[in-house]
Amino acid sequence: MTSNSKKTRIVVVGVGAVGSTTAYTLLLRHRMDELVLIDANKEKAVGDALDMNHGLPFLSKTKVWAGDYSDCAEADIVIITAGAAQKQGESRVDLLKRNIAIFESITDEVLKYNKDGIILIASNPVDIMSYFTWRKSGWPVNRVIGSGTLLDSSRFRYLIGEKLQVDPRSIHAHIIGEHGDSELPVWSLANIAGTTLELSEQDKEEIFTNTRDAAYQIINAKGATFYAIALALDRICTAILRNEAAVLNVSTLLQDYHGISDVYLGVPCIVDRNGIREVLKLNLSDEEEEKLRASANKLKDLIKSIS
Does 2 fall in a domain? Predict the structure, then answer.
């Protein structure tokens, strides 16, 4: 919690599996004084708020309610997890166009009431959604953040830790680029306390494949991923509200980053009370740099196809 007297407020727009789990995670960890749930299905938001309120005697004092966009006025952070599901026979580009239309209407409503908060986006494809939200908002880029490759990097560190039998919190390793199939591992900089990872090329390939395809495995098993992304969003919110200046692999607008500009991608950034304070430029190998550019070009081509 922040030290000043103003009450901290987080708004979650979209209370499907990801949104409701994120809201519950934030509540359990008492990240804010006020938690607002907004959804096109108002009844679902009311039900979630009521369910959480019934648990408040077991938690720190937090005000939770199902609200509307006017409640964004006092929000420190607005988390957007809303979005349309793909229809049968619908192309990815058509789905993107529908989701962008949804995001434009959400952004319009948020901006009516909030001028100085931070928008945190988790809806997929998160890099493209973040880019269009930033462009639509006209806000400084530091205040429109995508969840990026923070979850991918967490999965990566977990799998390396499993292989080496080391606590994943002690492993320094990054997944960067698109939150999706063109993401890449930065093996050249991965380390434990500065020491090189003792992994074979086969181990590395297996770890990265399982990192990249983790969402598919989980979706096949239970239909959706929501626990780990909720924890990732909680981590970003904590870095913001506590002014931590934490290094997190979030999605932001790149400008001349290894020759890449005008696209949102996940890279290590310093995150504090103002959002993204600084983008850290990694010293990539030639191969990694080439893969990052390929990831950027893939997203830029998609952006062109729907602009």
Answer: no
Residues 184 and 291 sit within 8 Å (Cβ to Cβ) = yes
What domain range is 25 assigned to? 9-146
286 shares a domain with 201: yes
**108, 64: one domain:** yes
Tally of CA atoms within 13 A in the half-sphere of 223 that contains its CB: 4
Give the CA-trace dihedral at 267, 270, 274, 275, to 10 degrees.
30
Q: Give domain status of residue 75, yes or no.
A: yes
258 is catalytic: no
Q: What is the mean pLDDT of residues 143-168?
A: 98
Contacts of 147 (CB under 8 A, 6+ apart): 120, 121, 122, 126, 179, 229, 232, 233, 236, 250, 251
Report if residue 4 sits inside a domain.
no
Q: How many CB atoms lie within 10 A of CB 39?
A: 21
Query: Do 72 and 201 share a domain, yes or no?
Result: no
- From 30, 54, 174, 179, the catalytic residue: 179
Q: How many angstroms separate the first and last alpha carbons of the chain? A: 40
How many domains are there within the chain? Answer: 2
pLDDT at 4: 52
Report the SS3 class of residue 77: strand
Answer yes or no: is pLDDT of 12 > 60: yes
Q: From residue 79, how far is each of 12, 22, 68, 123, 220 by CA, in Å?
A: 5, 9, 14, 10, 26
Q: List phi, psi (to 5°) of 7.
A: -75, 135
3-state secondary structure of 114: coil
CA–CA–CA angle 299, 293, 122 (5° rounding): 40
